[in-house]
Amino acid sequence: MAKSEIVERIRDVGVIPVVRASSAAEAVQVVEAITAGGVSLLEITMTVPGAVQVIEQLVKRFGDQIVVGAGTVLDPEVARACIAVGAQFIVSPALNLETINCCRDQAIPVMPGALTPTEIVTAWNAGADFVKVFPCGAVGGVRVGGRCSDMAYDKAVSAKLESFRRSVGWAKAHLRAVPTRVFAGKTI
Known about the structure:
Layout: H1 3-13, E1 15-20, H2 24-36, E2 41-45, H3 51-62, E3 67-71, H4 76-84, E4 89-91, H5 97-105, E5 110-111, E6 113-114, H6 117-126, E7 131-133, H7 144-152, E8 156-158, H8 168-172, E9 178-183, E10 186-187
Parallel strand pairs: 1-2, 1-9, 2-3, 3-4, 4-5, 6-7, 7-8
Antiparallel strand pairs: 9-10
């Protein structure tokens, strides 16, 4: 799938289930539940034991039926490892310009974390496809959408929501996708 198609899928789906689990097997079970529920996009965090292998397994198993991304990617080396096994987008809790460049060089969508206006603009200028406002709870949670909507229009993604219901505030701020954390099958 081309980078532009992946970016469009992220925008169209609008929800990015973030899979965290205590084992690879548990992560696969969570992904099965997500896909059974009709969501065709998800993120496997590097906190899952064997995360890179889980991504590889999911890509082989589901092919183009779902878009599998890698999350909690802290450096370009981990990004490269994830991309090598088929990760179709990269998410980071931090702004690392080398990781953005790595993803740009490989035509993979990248979503670095940023909190301040300076970090957000730096990410955009470096070529980030999306910017994950993280940790947005530090600046008031959902209310940050209203405060940052002019700057964040079409680029920012909230990473701190108490429930999917609260994501409506972000949608009203014209933001494109909302991560939803999934822990061992429970949506938080």
